[in-house]
Every structure is written in C-alpha cells, then in structure tokens.
Specification:
The complex is a heterodimer of chains A (111) and B (113).
Chain A (H helix, E strand, L loop, with lengths): L3 E4 L2 E5 L4 E7 L6 E7 L6 E7 L4 E4 L2 E6 L4 E6 L8 E8 L5 E3 L3 E6 L1
Parallel strand pairs in A: 2-11
Antiparallel strand pairs in A: 1-3, 3-8, 4-5, 4-9, 6-7, 7-8, 9-10, 9-11
Chain B lengths: L3 E4 L2 E4 L5 E7 L6 E7 L6 E7 L5 E2 L8 E7 L2 E6 L8 E8 L4 E3 L3 E5 L1
Parallel strand pairs in B: 2-11
Antiparallel strand pairs in B: 1-3, 3-8, 4-5, 4-9, 5-6, 7-8, 9-10, 9-11
Classes of the chains: A mainly beta (111), B mainly beta (113).
C-alpha cells in the first residue's frame, strides 16, 4: 500500500475558480513534505516545502497546509489559470534522500 | 535557482540498440543523483541512486546490467539503457538534491521501435 495517498485522482475546474488537493500520508516521522507541479512531458517543479513543524506555506496562488496530527496536507490553488493544468504531486521525505511519492492529482483548468 | 538538465529531451531508437541519457546539475554539485521512470499517468518510480565515486544502488526489480549508471563527476550522471526493447519506452527523469530542495530534470522521452 502506498504510504502517500492523494485525492482526487483528477479534477476539472473552470478558470478563475479555487480548488484544494488532498494528501494523506502514513510515513512517520518525516523530514519534510513537498508539493510539486508536473506539466505533461516535463519534470516536476517544486511549489512548496514544509517541515514537520510548519502548518502552512504559500507560494503565490499556491498555499499548502500540513496537519501532523491527522497526517494530512492540502494544496489550495486560488484563482486558477489555464496554465495551472498539470499533475500535482505530494512527496514526503523521510530523511536524507528517501522520497515517498503520491500518485498525483491531475488538474485540468478549462476556459 | 538550482537547475538540473537532461539530454536528450527525446530519443527514438531501434530495438536492440543502446541509449545514453545525461543528467547534469548546472550550478551546484551533487554527490548523489536519482533516476526515475514514469509511465503515462503514473507516478515516478525510483530506479536507482547514482553515487559519485561508487557504484549505483538499484531498486528491487531494476536490472543493473540493463540500466547502466555512471556518476562521472559531481555534476554529471549518465543512464545507459542497453539493448533497448519497446517495453523500455518511457519517460526518464533524474533528480539531484540541491540547496533548498530536490531538483528534477526536465525528463527524457524514450521511444524504442
């Protein structure tokens, strides 16, 4: 069973709307949790990095939250744009270089 | 910011030939790099860990004789797919731990005919 579960698997929203992506993990303890954006046919690009003690981290229209008690993280996208269409991957890092990947949420923003 | 590059970005080869993919850290040194394979609409799967100055560490189920890894310098790792077969067609991505986070390359699309 994957230690990092993401939901929904895919999502379609209208341009300008907000959305929230979920990440539940069982990996514990961990060093940090990261959200990446992966455009089709490209490598992942880091959006946010949160350590175990952080609750929220923002990067422009992207805001990530972390609840270490419930082992949940979310990525909120505000005022979505067409260019936000991509796969969003939640990655939990145990320690050192041990990365645990979620399967990603595929987001499609339509006009 | 830190950048990881890959070359080539895409390659088409005949079955039975070998293909070399390069991964470079452009403005930082990386004693360790990682190679992933990603099939369509699937998550990244770690293939191996490339270590400068020592042998690569392969994940279970990955054939080390088929996927040759050489960490030639602190900024370069290469993955050679030997005797490629159509089932090796995939998207190969490398990453390196940099100053602030794990940086991923742009990926290499391999198509074996």
């Amino acid at each position: 069973k994957n230690q990092v579960e993401q939901s929904p698997q895919s999502l379609i929203i209208l341009e300008g709307k907000n959305c929230t992506l979920q990440c539940n993990y069982t990996v514990s303890p961990f060093s940090n949790l990261r959200w990446y954006k992966q455009d089709t046919g490209r490598g992942p690009v880091s959006l946010t990095i949160m350590t175990f003690s952080e609750n929220t981290k923002s990067n422009g229209r992207y805001t990530a939250t972390l609840d270490a008690d419930t082992k949940q993280s979310s990525l909120h996208i505000t005022a979505s744009q067409l260019s936000d269409s991509a796969s969003y991957i939640c990655v939990v890092i145990l320690s050192g270089y041990a990365l645990n990947f979620g399967k990603g949420t595929s987001l499609l923003v339509t006009p | 910011g830190a950048v990881v590059s890959q070359h080539p970005s895409r390659v088409i080869c005949k079955s039975g030939t070998s293909v070399k993919i390069e991964c470079r850290s452009l403005d930082f040194q990386a004693t360790t790099m990682f190679w992933y394979r990603q099939f369509p609409k699937k998550s990244l799967m770690l293939m191996a860990t490339s270590n400068e100055g020592s042998k690569a560490t392969y994940e279970q189920g990955v054939e080390k004789d088929k996927f040759l890894i050489n960490h030639a310098s602190l900024t370069l790792s290469t993955l050679t797919v030997t005797s490629a077969h159509p089932e090796d067609s995939s998207f190969y991505i490398c990453s390196a731990p940099g100053p602030e986070t794990q940086y991923f390359g742009p990926g290499t699309r391999l198509l074996v005919l």
